Amino acid sequence: MEGAGAAAQSLVINVGQLVGEEFRQLRGVGGEVARLRSELGTINALLRMQSEADEDGVDHFVREWMMQLREVAYDSQDCVDLYLFRVRSRQGDRCFVRWKRLLGTLRARRRLAGDIRDLRALASAINEQHARYGVSLEPLRRTAAASDPAQAVAASARALRPAHQHHPSNQFVGNRVQATYLANKVKALKSDDENDKQLKVFSIVGFGGLGKTTLAVELCRQLETEFQRQAQVSVSQTFSGGKDLQGLLKRLLLQIALPKQGSSEQADPLGNIDTMDVGQLENKLKESLENRRYLILIDDVWSISAWDAIRSKLPSSNYGSRIIVTTRIDTVAKACSDANEDYIHRMKKLSDEDSEQLFVSKAFGFGNTCPKDLEAAMRSILKKCGGLPLAIVSIASLLASYKPPEGKRMWETVQKSIGSQMETNPTLEGMRQILTLSYNNLPHHLKACMMYLSIFPEDYIIVKDRLLKRWIAEGLVAEKRGLTQMELAEGYFNELMSRGIIDRATVLVTLREGREEGCRVHDMMLEILVSKSLEANFVSLIGGQYDGTMSYSANTIRRLSIHGGVDAHMEDGSSSATVAARRRGVTGIGGVTGMIVQHVRSLTIFDPEAHNKLLSRLDEFALLRVLDLEGCKGLGRKHLSCISRMYLLRFLSLKSTDIKEMPLRIGDLEHLQTLDALLRTVTKGPFSTSDVRQTNLNDLPKTVKKLEKLEHLLFSGKGESWTGWMLPQGINKMKALRQVNKAVIHDHAVAEEIGELDQLQELAIYVDTRETGIDQEKVAEKLACSLSKMYSLRWLDMGNFGCDRWPFIPIMDFLHQVESPPRLLRYLKICGCINKLPDWLQSLTDLVEFDIGWTYLNGVQLFSVLCKLPSLQKLYLGPYFIRKGEDMVARSNQSFPELKELTLGYSPEVPPVYIFEEGSMPKLETLAVYIGDQPKQIVGIQHLTNLKEVHFDGWRDKLKHAVEQVEQLNKKRDVSEQITVRVKYADTN
């Protein structure tokens, strides 16, 4: 019931505002709304009590009661939102228009008053009915922690776990030795053994939660230098040979076939991948892997038929290629590996020693020990976890905030609540019990956020930024004085991460969109979330693994998520059962046409090809707050016209769609908080990117300046990377803006206006020296003045479109005119010619990440400034960051006190040599070097004494010496201090 509680709470706020505004103008309505507000306050309290109650103690009567009240809360919010949508005066209406509208909507307002009275009467009737049956509130007063006083210790504002929570040494407990053993078997390739040269399939099989995927990913990491091509894909439980196979082949190609930046291969080797059928994708895959040794991980295969479909499309090889399969089913493993036991690895449970090491690292932090008075409880819990890593991590993360002496009772409570069946016979039900325990002990405000993850498909990598903005748009993030909602949402996310309930996914690094942190939900936890979401009518799911099942509620649909494989044809059924189902908002199994969608507040489509019938009905989605169409194709003017009339919309994502023009009426969406019209990039390697799917926008209409509540405006258009949207005059009206990307300034008046946007925290802004007839100096002067006023900026990307054209114009010298730089900056990018770094850069004591390219700087001045920044942890040196003829030299007296990551991007010709003197960069842990096709040298890598990980990317012959250097270093280091080497070969040899 968590979602309904959030709905009731947000409605109490909305209704309160309306009482003070237009409802006064219609006698009698204000009083009805005030009484409804009071009623909803009570409903909200009851729903919250249920959320926090001991689930086992809540009987069916109480559950039914809460379900009915929840629907009243939803319907009440819909009632008020329909008023906002249909009859309220619009922002900017003149006095005459406002009075005309008030009189013209008098009947609708009276109907609203009647609807409110009916809702109040329904709520009262529900409560009276349950009172007659003697339903007690007592079960709702027993909390999930059994009234344990330790509950107060673990309040919702827990301190986050320290960074060592994610220390690599505790991620692979019990797996590293297995991975090394398997790696030696997989990579074995004797030149005189023809059998070794054949394609082989290795299977990893075991019960869910044993760490199969973790082991397989670590195995692939260890084998990166052995294979020219690698890819990793997941298979859903309901995988079929149609669209699912087509999607899997696309994902393989996107990882295998794209060229590296600086490659001599054709710019787009995939052609139009979105239009390819299975046969064309198969041919393209064979072409991409021809004469190459490849390694492919296929994760979570559930059936022999799924494996047969996949295997038939993968090319055979005589170059020692390998496929790794993970599965829970022994017969599937045997089918994949042709029943060859040498190629089947059966996962073992963790030993007692490894189990304790993993538990302690998660509960107390890496390198710490368990307090004496908790050791008995810990060993009992570990015994019941049965050596399953997922169970151990879940319980340890749950107990991490409960320290003795206050937390001891919570440990004992958890110890007693875990069933003992896991000890001798691990079962799916036993794992569900442990994961459910982790969910039930979440604070109330986190349960709704956690349930929201059930919207996303199995194995889907959820981008953090997208998730947080959707939480806010749905009203799941409270308001708190002194903190923005985005900061609160980030706190929610970090707490879920620290509890181990969601897993950190690979961070996507793209040159255009920066760093995207992602998360994913283990499939067992997802099953629990889906079950709870359906029970609470929080989400309705159609398609994918839910196709052919009752994965939607018989109640009104509130949030609709369309997964892959939806049959969207018009059903022809006319039976009473079909008619009744349609009245409830449900169509035939898997179908979407005929569905009642008027009450849907969130629509998400994950299958870009299964949406046509639904999108043709966009005009019926009157109450949408969230519309996420990322990746959908075929959006036309008619669809965008419907979207422009969705008055209540708060979140709109058109990312990676093929829209060509944004309608002028987009400015009418006065409640819009997020507008995402970015292209999607596919990252291959740690620092290169290729654009695969994008919007076809050239610009945004000037009417966007009417979106005065807009906080996040994200844009990227078609064509080359040097594109952006031109800021219109009047941009200073958009006072709520916090995030703006790829904005271009041609007008000095606009450059001055942008200084009035004092809420901006993230800004990517460019001047354009390619344009003629523009007073570039005046634009730059006004921009410098505006930057001096932006005290809230945390993230700043500045540059020059045309910085790559000769003659190089040092337009970025305007930065020297910034009198008062943004002191809170944590990220800074400078892209364009500048004679020297500005003096004020040394004052940025909070700067964590610095990124430069096309600057043509003097190397000595560059490093003499950067080495003094006290918080700098990540440094990216891009194309032509240094002048021609200079080497990059990190000197012994340049401390770089906190630098941990250094990326040397692809830069033709300059510098020819990267030099690290003894004592330089003492804390550097990760070095990434993109050499490409350039003959470059790395001198003194042995002086980076704290180095833990190296990434190399480029032509095989150009990388040979660099890789050998690191291999020689590893021979001199202890086994525990080995440098991890990751290599991507960009050539086709």
Proportion of helical residues: 25-40%
Q: Could you tell me the mean pLDDT?
A: 78
Task: Report how far apart the termini are.
Answer: 58 Å
Taking the sheet with the most strands, its summary is:
18 strands, parallel
Shape label = globular
Tell me what the structure shows:
It is a single chain. The chain is globular. With 989 residues, the protein is an alpha/beta fold. The protein has an 18-stranded parallel sheet that branches. The protein has a five-stranded parallel sheet with strand order 2-3-4-1-5, with helices on both faces. Strands 6-8-7 form a three-stranded antiparallel sheet. It is built from 30 helices and 31 strands. 35% of the residues lie in helices and 15% in strands.
